[in-house]
Design goal:
With 366 residues, this protein is of the alpha+beta class. It folds into two domains: 215 residues, Beta-lactamase (3-Layer(aba) Sandwich); 124 residues, 3-Layer(aba) Sandwich (Beta-lactamase). Helices cover 33% and strands 19% of the residues. The chain contains twelve helices and 13 strands. The strands form three sheets. Strands 3-2-1-13-12-11-10-9-8 form a nine-stranded antiparallel sheet, with helices on both faces. The longest helix has 17 residues. The two termini are 26 Å apart. The model has no long low-confidence stretch (mean pLDDT 94). InterPro entries: AmpC-like, Beta-lactam-related, Beta-lactam/transpept-like. Belongs to the peptidase S12 family. This is Beta-lactamase-related domain-containing protein.
Length: 366
């Protein structure tokens, strides 16, 4: 029987970190073999709504693993009798994005346009940087955003270096929607969330608003104002053009179901797809926010690192008012999910907490 690491000592550490970094609230779930432990700390919204494991948060860039998994489902369809005329014959990770959405997808030059594959886009090696401030959040549609990429400069040659790029995940999202005739969130709900019984996972703020009548609580995002020594509530994120890179709203309990799927390499993702999703595609050495020793690797919507001889498969997310972390150690069948309600500082707190838990798990000498 596993013993919860979310003990009194851990509770004190969380409370100290939340106070130090001015984070109103945090939820955490830890998977240890067949057991799952979860807790909520602090406030989901001021002045008095507590965080619980059921509280939902914007999960930001952890969405990308689901976008990559969605592509894997279409690749499997392309080699089965379920293939449709919208999915190109022989569709695979190495299919080019321009072959699926030729009228919409173009980059700065023809060489990159004709060669960037789904694999390149999902592993951040396209050479296209993170032009996040190039579009107005609420007024740019996904299709219009993709059509505008041709006017933004590339920063590196294709496959030459790691460059994090939310808009490449947007391009993949648009391609998925073109092939399926469904919105990406609808596709994920039908093909991933429902099979995993992720019943409190959503794609849009409107869906969460409707779920509030069933008792679902959305954590409000905040920023700490040092001048007034008070929190300022952030606007609800609404950025359709990068939805495939960061739209999901969920809770730590639902995310443990996703981590268990990955850890056990079980359905609805095929065994071949599981292997593909966590295969490193590009290596890099510099990343200020990565506490693990270099080199680092990026797979398809997942970061790959090692710590004290153990492989970690993980990702973080940060959006206006929110921060999240998910990771698992496949060899130990151990994982965790954390979600908080500030930008940046939530992730600082989560880094301190997961390093504490990893050191405890791996019996790192103090």
């Amino acid at each position: 029987m596993s013993v919860s690491s979310l003990n009194d000592e851990f509770d004190r550490l969380v409370q100290d970190l939340l106070q130090t970094w001015h984070v109103p609230g945090l939820a955490i779930a830890v998977i240890d073999g067949a057991s799952t432990f979860s807790k909520g700390y602090g406030l989901a919204s001021l002045p008095d709504v507590p965080v619980t494991p059921e509280t939902v948060f914007f999960t930001a860039s952890t969405t990308q693993s689901f976008t990559a998994a969605s592509v894997s489902l279409l690749i499997d369809e392309a080699v089965s009798t379920e293939a449709t005329e919208k999915i190109p014959p022989g569709f695979s990770w190495t299919s080019t994005i321009s072959s699926v959405i030729p009228e919409d997808f173009a980059l700065e030059n023809e060489y990159a346009t004709s060669r960037v594959t789904f694999e390149d886009a999902l592993s951040n090696r396209s050479g296209f940087p993170d032009h996040l401030k190039s579009f107005k959040p609420k007024t740019t549609s996904l299709q219009d955003g993709i059509r505008s990429l041709r006017h933004l400069p590339l920063a590196a040659e294709l496959r030459s270096q790691y460059l994090y790029s939310s808009y490449m995940f947007s391009a993949v999202s648009h391609a998925i929607e073109s092939m399926t005739g469904q919105g990406l969130g609808e596709f994920m709900r039908e093909r991933i969330w429902s099979p995993l019984n992720m019943t409190n996972t959503y794609w849009t703020p409107q869906e969460v608003k409707e779920a509030a009548s069933r008792g679902i609580t959305l954590a409000h995002g905040y920023a700490w104002n040092a001048s007034t020594e008070a929190y300022t509530e952030e606007a609800i994120p609404n950025f359709p053009v990068v939805s495939g890179a960061g739209a999901i709203i969920s809770n730590v309990l639902d995310y443990t179901k996703w981590l268990r799927c990955m850890m056990t390499q079980s359905g609805p993702i095929s065994r071949a797809a599981h292997s593909a999703l966590i295969e490193p595609h590009i290596y890099y050495t510099e990343q200020a926010t990565n506490p693990f020793p270099a080199p680092h690797a990026y797979a398809l919507g997942w970061r790959i690192d090692s710590y004290r001889g153990r492989r970690l498969i993980w990702h973080t997310g940060s959006w206006t008012g929110y921060g999240s972390t998910m990771m698992y150690l496949p060899d130990l069948q151990w994982g965790l999910v954390m979600m908080g309600n500030t930008t940046g500082t939530s992730n600082y707190v989560q880094t301190a907490l997961y390093m504490h838990l990893l050191d405890e798990l791996l019996e790192t000498p103090s």
